[in-house]
Amino acid sequence: MRERGRTRRPPPRPVPRDQHESAFGSILTELVGRLPGALAAALVDLHGETVDYAGTDPYAVRLAAAHWRIVLNDTGSQPSLAMPRWITVRATRASYAIHTLPEGYALVLVLSRGAGVPGPRRAIGACMRLLAAEAGWALGGAADWYPVDVASDARRRPQAILLEAGPRSLDVLGAVASGLAHRDRGWRVRTDNGVEATLVREPGGFWYVDEPLAAGFAPAAGGGAEESR
Description:
This protein is α+β, with helices and mostly antiparallel strands. It folds into two domains: 133 residues, Beta-Lactamase; 83 residues, no CATH class. 20% of the residues lie in helices and 34% in strands. The strands form two sheets. It has a six-stranded antiparallel barrel. A hairpin with a 5-residue loop joins strand 2 and strand 3.
């Protein structure tokens, strides 16, 4: 019997969008669903204009994106500082994370007050990579993690990666202990076609693999949460 595992939390009821959702918006929506405590995300240009966004209040998202783009510009202009790769801020009513992207663009995240301030998390790295691919940017130094769907056993150990072409069964070679955050679980695995990779399960049932698509892993569109057996 197949039982649906823990899935991403449903988003709050949104205010009607004030623009058509582009491919960037879909990528940002996926990020908001995967990142604990995320309320909104925006792709903003050098001048503070929002290219697209995900969130429940378009005006508030655009305002936050423009403000934090200015903060990022001011920080990078300080003689004693190099251009930061990301900035995180914990405020009274919310937290914020701003990540730099090529050609003057930035990713701005609005999080709930108790969500903490994420640094370079896998979900953020995967989002930045997808944004760069959509825009045609060369994104150096981004974490190479790819969201995937995984079937697992009763102990939540991975059994198969669920691809568009069908499942790829896995042999677990061993557990991964280093480089993982609290409550993350990781395994070194080998697929039935001989590809070795590291799989990580984050809280919420979200899985990531460290091999690129060309190496034999072709995640389903918008790869999501765990399915268990």
